[in-house]
Amino acid sequence: MTNNKKRIVIIGATSAIAEHCARFWVDDAAVDMTLVGRDISKIERVAQDLRVRSPQSVIHVLESKFTDSIAIRQLVDRVIAGGIVNIVLIAHGTLPDQIECQTDLSANQEALIVNGISPMLFAEAFVGHMQKANSGTLAIIGSVAGDRGRRSNYVYGAAKGLVTRYAQGLQHRLASTDVKIVLIKPGPTDTPMTMHLKQQGSHLANVEDVSRLIVKAINQGKSVVYAPTKWTLIMMVVRHLPKFIFDKLDI
């Protein structure tokens, strides 16, 4: 029997944003979804929740190393062997401590690899197959932090800036095809990753609202989405502030 369900792959499926995106997709229709993470027990927990929400959906779980290029290639080829993928969401990442990254080069290196290089490797592995099939949407989560380097988080920002330039390059490469590349730039969002910011009194966006906006943008094949949308204007201002003003800001 032919499986006519939409095929969705989520890399970093245990992240709060990814998990909520998955819920929106299975609530909308029965899908064939593959969840990829670094801890099989955590991925299975997410999968079980989705199966309860959508018994008609097919939910697969896969464990992989996220910083090993060979492991990434093998995983992607394995997924693609199951048929054409309609949507890929690359959502993994960490929020490193900036001060630690300044003093510990190992922490600095890990932050750059996990938040910048790893998402790019997954994207490159999937895009090659999508280009051959001339179909599919690949969405990759960057951050508003990638729009301009700031003293408070420039290591994380540098990694996400790398993702931004990479996604733009993919969009240019695939402009004449039917493959869509969606660059997602969330602002600070209420997730376990930002718990320390919440404890410090920072105002964080609701994760469900952010995820709903992301899923809508992916389904529409938008090139860039800021989530929440207010960050479109905020970051336009930040990007264009003259240096002599920007340097006086404690951000």
From TrEMBL:
Signal peptide (UniProt feature, chain positions): none
Pfam families recorded: adh_short
Coiled coil: none
InterPro entries membership: NAD(P)-bd_dom_sf, SDR_fam
GO terms, molecular function: oxidoreductase activity
GO cellular component terms listed in the entry, alphabetical order: membrane
Entry keywords, A to Z: Oxidoreductase
Family: Belongs to the short-chain dehydrogenases/reductases (SDR) family.
Name this protein carries in UniProt: Short-chain dehydrogenase/reductase SDR
